[in-house]
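Action item from last week, closing it out:
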Amino acid sequence: MFLLLYALTGDLFDFDYEVEPILEVLMGKILEQGLMEVLEEEELAAMRSHQEHFEQIRNAELVATQRMEAAEKRKIEEKERRLAQCTQGVLQTILKACG
């Protein structure tokens, strides 16, 4: 027994018509996700740039602070050296006067 089936035009599943809304949603989601990833990458790049700038400023300030500390240390050492020389000179003068 043969069963003869036939379908009238439009009775069957129209793939192109039925799939189009699904593809539109998928494409929309893909584009949205891609845009979010690009924005995230741009934000990370900006953060890296700000971090590098901050580190450059911090390093420059650190170098300046170290220079000031070294200059202050030299001044104190010079002051102590001159005081020691002066004290030694005064002691020698006193010893010569007493002796």
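Closing note: The helical segments are 15-98.
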